[in-house]
Amino acid sequence: MNESHLWTAEPRTAYLQWQTTEAAGADRRRFSQRSIVQHKAMFDRFLRHLVTRGVALATFGPSTLSHSLTTSKTVVRQGRPCPCGR
Predict the structure, then answer these.
(1) Is there a contact between 84 and 50 (Cβ–Cβ < 8 Å)?
(2) What does the pLDDT look like over 46-65, one tens digit per residue?
(3) Cβ neighbours of residue 30 under 8 Å, at least 6 residues apart?
(4) Of the candidates 25, 18, 75, 17, the residue with the CA atom closest to the CA atom of residue 46
(5) Which candidate, 23, 44, 49, 67, has a CA 20 to 30 Å from the CA of 55?
(6) Which residues, other chains included, contact 7 with Cβ-Cβ below 8 Å and sequence gap of 6+?
């Protein structure tokens, strides 16, 4: 499976593969395992947000990202469950 198809068919797998093989921080070093776990959790939450809004990873726009961030901040601030079911 080529890389672009993997992002469409299995975005969680593609993200984890990218995160563990290519991603680097501001200092150009690889992320620690702890950071990778945290980043993966944030990406998974974003994917769930896309699903609840009926939007594909390949086609989401700025308003979808903004809504996801706003929703996440509200959920965390209020200490309540995520509206996406998790």
Answers:
(1) no
(2) 899 888 889 888 888 888 88
(3) 23, 24
(4) 75
(5) 23
(6) 14, 57, 58
Q: What integer is the mean pLDDT of 60-76?
A: 75
Residue type, 78: Q
What gap in Å lies between CA 38 and CA 10, rounded to an integer? 19
The two structure tokens encoding residue 32: 């620690």
DSSP 11-77: HHHHHHHHHHHT---TTSPPPPHHHHHHHHHHHHHHHHHHHHHT--TTT--HHHHHHHHHHHHHHHH
Do 73 and 40 meet the contact criterion of CB atoms below 8 Å apart? no
Confirm if 12 and 47 have CB atoms less than 8 A apart. yes
